[in-house]
Amino acid sequence: MHVCIRLLFLLGNWLIKPENMMKKKMKILGMTAAILTFVSITPTTVVADDLLQDAGSWLQVVGEGSLKVVDPGLEKGRIWLEGQSRWDNNWNNWYQGMARAAMGYSLSDRATIWAGYTFLPTQNVGKNYVAQQDVWPAFRYNLPISIGTFTFRTMVEVNFIPGNGNDVRVRPRQMIRFLHPLEFEPRLSLIAWDEFFVRLNSTRAGGQSGFDQNRAFMGLGWTFNKNFRVEGGYLNQYLDDATHTNNTMHHLIMGSLFINF
């Protein structure tokens, strides 16, 4: 992820140099493709040969807006609604859905706090159906800079997993995201993000404490207007199993629709 962010900064510096203004339109797409290729092949070159790998897709729709649509006095109140559908096993198996809802409060034009709920039905190949439920607080901070915007999101999930009895798993997750609008077409953006998950405690169904998974994304976004944006690209998901002995890497095509209101 650090390498990806560094590449984005180099790209931004290259774009703003006057001597490169005439060349950037021809080269920007080539550079973007090179970065995407780098991200997609790098993880597979540093992991064990017996790593389980497959391909699939994630699709998501995310809606977020102010509660002023309900009452002008609730302008700082926020609502977040999200749905996802996920396929693996080389697109042969729908294995997971996700529904998320949260209420938030804008501390400023950059910082928002959230409290939410997630429902996660899962049907992995050869395993029983399970439906995990999570409750969580979250904090999000947007940091605009000269060449784009960083977003930092911290969530601390409390996972209620079937088979855990009265035990719950606590799993913090940290996302860092960067969005760089392209100068020759500001509606088109280069996007990279990384999210790291850790299990704070050991549970019977939730696995041993320690590293849980990492997700790294690189892609492009298109902003239609202030209310609608789409994003698409490559998502690499690297997972540890319950005992930290076997690992899985999913190579995913991810598509997203963001709705702001």
Stretches where pLDDT falls below 50 for ≥5 residues?
A: 1-12, 14-47
Distance between the termini: 31 Å
Structural class comes to: mainly beta
| Major sheet summary line | 11 strands, mixed, barrel
Helix percentage range: 10-25%
In CATH, the topology is named Porin
Number of H- or I-type helical stretches: 2
Shape: globular
* Name given to the CATH architecture: Beta Barrel
Task: Compute the CA-based radius of gyration.
Answer: 20 Å
Number of domains: 1
> Which strand order does the major sheet show?
1-2-3-4-5-6-7-8-9-10-11
Beta-strand level of the residues, as a percent range?
over 45%
Query: Average pLDDT value?
Result: 86
N-to-C SSE series? HHEEEEEEEEEEE
Number of strands: 11
- The CATH class designation is Mainly Beta
Q: What does this 3D model show about the protein?
A:
- It is built from two helices and eleven strands.
- The chain is mostly beta strands and 261 residues long.
- It has an eleven-stranded mixed barrel with strand order 1-2-3-4-5-6-7-8-9-10-11.
- The model is unreliable at 1-12 and 14-47 (pLDDT under 50).
- The longest helix has 18 residues, at 24-41.
- 18% of the residues are buried.
- It has one domain (2-260): Porin (Beta Barrel).
- Helix 1 (2-16) packs antiparallel against helix 2.
- The protein has helices at residues 2-16, 24-41, and strands at 52-66, 77-88, 93-106, 111-122, 130-145, 148-160, 169-182, 185-199, 210-223, 228-240, 247-260.
